[in-house]
């Protein structure tokens, strides 16, 4: 019986073995096919993932390069026709600090190219075209700021009638990963070309530090660092005309440091040749002028922001000449100027599109000591000690009462202060011999209304009542256009 059972089991195994082998071989084949499919899916997924990573890296690189270019050009100089109607930081500075929301007025400002990254090392070219029609009651050839020695710079209302005004041509670009550069030409209506700015600046310095070298608009005060086409009025305040000859543009080097704080804190210093007014060319080595400045700013709630600052400029003059009553006089000595500035901006909930308001003002105080030389190169020539402490200020407010329309008021006042002139004190001369320097407090009131149909254009009407000379009132009417062509960087707060 046992023998038959063993034989039966052996026969069953012999019959089942080929079937089990066949089944196992089929399963192995199916498993290999599944593994091959999984391997193909894995390879395809890895290929797609790698392609996505490459595109992401390229997009990040392009974005970083575009931001670097805009930051480099924007920190160099704001050359748009005006600040765009948008909330902005107090300074288009660095990513090392969070800046307060700035409420900027609607103004012409061209936008950057959509393909900025592909144009990183090609200069962006932009132009500002400006013109003015002026109606002046008094002869502009007789204009002077009584009590202040003429600067020889951009002073006075300009000539009567149609004037081409000042146009600008700007080229700016990244030079390499370390430096950027900008060149701005100023073209006057008298067919004169002047280098307004020509500088290089760093792009990749750490800890909020930025270095600029060449000719540039100094960062002292508030309005000085802004090109004329961004101003809210046709002309510069009287204080800028009297103490800086319009604007202070040194040839030299500037260092700025932006503190890594939630509030905006900026400290800087400049060293220049000293050839710009209130200095002059003294043919000397080293720095002929030094300035320092500090600015702070922050938000005030959701709708307001501010910026305030103090600045100091030290320079000297060697035979700085001016004409007075047909004679040439000159001054040699030291000049020290202090400036305090502040600006407040408001827009409902930080949105300036419909309405916004800006209040801005600056105070100047200058002290000069040295020697006054009278009637140079004539038989009446004489020299004596000279000392003066003079001051001036302006306050202006601009309100955008509806989209594209703004109105503003400005009041300027100067004080010729105390002037101690040795030649007059010792009886050698009388005030009649120095009529321009005789004491007076010039003043001016201005009203403007402007219309900006787009970010690239602005039309302005300005009325002014100027009392810069004793017994003379100059009623002035200005019609101005400002047009922006090409790519422009954003403006500072």
- Distance from N terminus to C terminus (CA atoms, Å) equals 110 Å
Low-confidence stretches: 75-118
Helical content (DSSP H or I, runs of 4+): 10-25%
Structural class: alpha+beta
Let me know the number of strands: 19
Q: Helices and strands, in N-to-C order?
A: HEEEEEEEEHEEEEEEEEHEEE
How many H/I helical runs? 3
CA radius of gyration:
35 Å
Q: How would you name the oligomeric state of the polypeptide chains in this document?
A: single chain
**Biggest sheet, in brief?**
16 strands, antiparallel, barrel
* Integer average pLDDT: 84
Summed up:
The protein is α+β, with helices and mostly antiparallel strands and 493 residues long. It contains 3 helices and 19 strands. It has helices at 2-76, 238-244, 422-425; strands at 87-88, 102-103, 124-136, 161-163, 167-174, 179-187, 193-202, 209-215, 251-258, 264-272, 289-300, 304-324, 327-346, 356-374, 382-402, 405-421, 443-454, 457-469, 472-486.
């Amino acid at each position: 019986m046992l023998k038959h059972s063993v034989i039966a089991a052996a026969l069953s195994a012999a019959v089942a073995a080929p079937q089990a082998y066949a089944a196992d071989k089929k399963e192995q084949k199916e498993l290999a096919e599944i593994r091959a499919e999984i391997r193909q899916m894995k390879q395809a997924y890895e290929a797609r993932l790698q392609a996505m990573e490459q595109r992401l890296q390229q997009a990040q690189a392009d974005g970083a390069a575009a931001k670097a270019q805009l930051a480099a050009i924007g920190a160099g100089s704001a050359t748009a026709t005006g600040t765009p109607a948008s909330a902005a930081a107090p300074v288009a500075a660095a990513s090392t600090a969070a800046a307060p929301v700035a409420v900027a007025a609607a103004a012409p400002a061209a936008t950057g190219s959509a393909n900025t990254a592909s144009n990183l090392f090609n200069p962006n070219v932009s132009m500002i075209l400006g013109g003015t029609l002026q109606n002046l009651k008094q002869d502009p050839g007789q204009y002077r700021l009584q009590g202040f020695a003429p600067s020889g710079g951009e002073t006075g209302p300009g000539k009567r009638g149609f004037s081409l005004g000042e146009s600008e041509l700007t080229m700016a670009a990244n030079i390499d990963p370390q430096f950027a550069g900008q060149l701005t030409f100023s073209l006057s209506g008298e067919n004169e070309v002047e280098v307004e700015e020509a500088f290089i600046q760093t792009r990749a310095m750490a800890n909020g530090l930025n270095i600029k070298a060449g000719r540039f608009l100094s960062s002292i005060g508030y309005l000085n660092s802004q090109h004329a086409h961004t101003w809210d009025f046709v002309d510069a305040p009287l204080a800028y005309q009297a103490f800086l000859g319009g604007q202070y543009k040194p040839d030299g080097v500037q260092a700025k440091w932006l503190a890594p704080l939630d509030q905006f804190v900026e400290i800087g210093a400049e060293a220049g040749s000293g050839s710009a007014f209130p200095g002059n060319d003294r043919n000397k080595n080293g720095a002929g002028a030094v300035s320092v400045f500090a600015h702070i700013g922050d938000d005030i709630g959701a709708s307001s922001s501010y910026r305030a600052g103090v600045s100091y400029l030290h320079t000297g003059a060697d035979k700085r000449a001016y004409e007075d009553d047909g004679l040439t006089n000159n001054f040699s000595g030291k000049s020290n100027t202090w400036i305090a500035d502040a600006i407040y901006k408001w827009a409902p909930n930080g949105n300036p599109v419909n309405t916004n308001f800006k209040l801005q003002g600056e105070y100047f105080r200058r002290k000069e000591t040295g020697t006054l030389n009278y009637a140079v190169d004539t038989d009446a020539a004489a020299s004596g000690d000279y000392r003066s402490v003079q001051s001036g200020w302006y306050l202006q407010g601009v309100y955008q009462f509806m989209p594209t329309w703004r109105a503003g008021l400005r009041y300027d006042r100067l004080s010729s202060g105390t002037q101690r002139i040795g030649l007059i004190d010792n009886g050698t001369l009388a005030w009649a011999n120095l009529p321009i320097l005789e004491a007076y407090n010039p003043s001016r009131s201005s009203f403007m209304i402007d219309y900006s149909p787009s970010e690239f254009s602005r039309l302005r009407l300005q009325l002014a009542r100027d009392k810069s000379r004793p017994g003379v009132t100059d009623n002035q009417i200005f019609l101005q256009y400002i047009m922006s062509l090409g790519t422009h960087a954003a403006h500072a707060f």
